[in-house]
Design brief:
The chain is 91% helix and 0% strand. The protein is mainly alpha-helical.
């Protein structure tokens, strides 16, 4: 019986050592990944790409808005809208 308990304890210790080594390896990999994520050059390029994406997105949204506004003005029979367009001097751009 004592032999079985000793074998069981020995197996548990070996399993614990294996788990500790595996966790140590995982922690090292996570440290490398965090270091890579926090690198200055990566942050710089992420900022550049983010800025370009926002610029392109804003341009597309503005173009759609202008197209819809232009369509509204061309097809509208509302006199107030024609007055606003004339007041803003947009007649030359919309004709």
């Amino acid at each position: 019986m004592d032999k079985d308990v000793e074998i069981s304890k020995k197996l548990n210790m070996e399993h614990t050592v294996e788990l500790a080594e595996e966790l140590s390896h995982e922690v090292e990999e996570l440290n490398k990944e965090v270091h890579k994520q926090n690198s200055q050059i990566r942050i710089f390029w992420n900022g550049i790409i983010s800025g370009l994406g926002r610029t392109i997105g804003a341009t597309i949204i503005f173009a759609v808005f202008i197209a819809l506004f232009s369509y509204l003005i061309k097809t509208s029979d509302a006199e107030w809208l024609n007055t606003v367009v004339a007041w803003l001097g947009l007649n030359t751009y919309l004709n």
